[in-house]
Structures are given as structure tokens and as C-alpha cells.
Amino acid sequence: MLLIDRIGVDIGRRLRLEDAIDWAAENQVRYIDIQLDTGANRVNEFDDARAAAIREQAARRGVTLGLHTLSAVNVAEYSPFLSEAVDAYMRAYIDLAPKLGAEWIVVHAGYHFTADVKPRMEAGLERLKRMVGHAEERGALLLLENLNKEPEDAEVHYLAHTIEEWRYYYDRINSPAFALSFTANHAHLMPDGVEGFVDAIPLERVAEVRLADCFRNGHEQHLLPGQGDFDFGAMFALLERRGFKGHYMNAFGTLDDMQKARHDMVAMAREAGAPVT
């Protein structure tokens, strides 16, 4: 498959799902992901008839769909009532994914409040194990994303933003229903950088690579390519030479920004010597 066909667009909350599929097909975008938390796309707004129609539409138009849960929902929650609600939220995504024909669901490890790292990580791991078991039963695939660092003096920090924290989860969960989503720009914020992450992680378990520009060792930003100092060409060359065969996902700016950037990225990859065909 051509590299351009493997670079998708994160629709997020921008369009109704049916409209998102049409937009992707009309723009020759083969991969999209979408969040099902608001408006007409709320996960509880899909009956079987609507889900079946979307599945047929995506297949007919050649669009591969993925879902992306909200990182604000704390997968590391352990409080009564809230804990059960997080389970219900994630099960709803998992139950709906095969009905829509969605091929993956991006999930997160949650966040902690500085003084409670260990119990939060333990709670998140146990929840992810339960959800992976549910995904096995439903025929769904969960992709655990490495999230972004927060300022050092912040009280709240995302989990799985370092190699060590990410490894804590994927070393303990082995299932055909569980893989990884590597956000390369998040790695760019860390001392290890993209190359350090790629050297350390099991690349064969990475199904998706997420992309945006930002500044080295900086803070979380989803900039258009060229607005930061992320080297997209070097990143494509590194991953493609290491044998990455999955899809990429642009996550920045407007739909038009992400669509234009797909073509710009192929040019950057070609210039860096990465295979683009």
C-alpha cells in the first residue's frame, strides 16, 4: 500500500460519523478515527440499524474506521460509583465497535494526582485487563496510547507518558485484542525522543502511529507540520525501515490542514529516503 494511503485523519468531534465517512471517501482518505462522546456521535445514540448502515457505508466507500476514547475519562479511577461508570463507558465503546465495523479503539492509562501514582497504576492495569477480556469476547481491538507529559510542577499527570510507565501495562497484558498506538509527537516531548521510544518499545505490537508537530522537550501542542521542530521525514524513514506496516493518523488543525499535510508528509518521507510505495 502506498504511504499516502496509510496516512489517516483524526476526525475527533468535527463531523457526524456518516458525514465523516463521506468526507474521507471524497478526499481519498482510507483511515479515520472518531470520538463518540458528544452530539449525534454519542456512543449511546447508535441503535443496531444505524450501526449496520454505517458499517455498510464505510465498507462500500473504502474507509477504515477506528474509535478514540476520551483521555479525560480516568481509566485509573478507583472511587466507588465513578469506577463502575468508567467500566460502563469503555464497555459501551467495545460493544459498539464491531457493530460499526471499527477495527480499533484507542484507549488510555488514565492519570494520577502526584501522591497516588501506585494505586492509580494498579487500578488502571486491572481495568485494562478487564476491558481486554471484554474486547476478546466482542471481537474488538484496543490500542493503548502513550500520552503526553504535563509540566513537572503540575498536580495531575497522565500515565503511560514515559517508556517505563507504558511498559508497565503492555508487559502485563498479552492478548490478540490488545496492541499499541504510538503518538510520536508525545515521544518528541520526552528526553528519549522518537528514536529512543522506537528502540525501546515492541514495534511489532504497534498498530498505529499518531502525528502532530511540536517542539523538542517542550509541552503538549498539536501544531501543523512546519510550525514546530518535529522531523517527520526522519520519523517515517526510521519506522518504515524498521518494518512498521500499520497506519498513521494526523491529529492537528482542521480537516483541510490534515488532508493537505498527508501529501506534504509523503514528500518529506521521500526526501528522507523512506519508501513511499
UniProtKB/TrEMBL annotation:
Keywords linked to the UniProt accession: Endonuclease, Hydrolase, Nuclease
Domain of life of the source: Bacteria
Ranges where the Xylose isomerase-like TIM barrel domain occurs: 21-248
Record bears the keyword Nuclease: yes
Xref: InterPro entries: IolE/XylAMocC-like, Xyl_isomerase-like_sf, Xyl_isomerase-like_TIM-brl
Residue ranges of the TM segments: none
GO molecular function: endonuclease activity
Entry protein name: Endonuclease
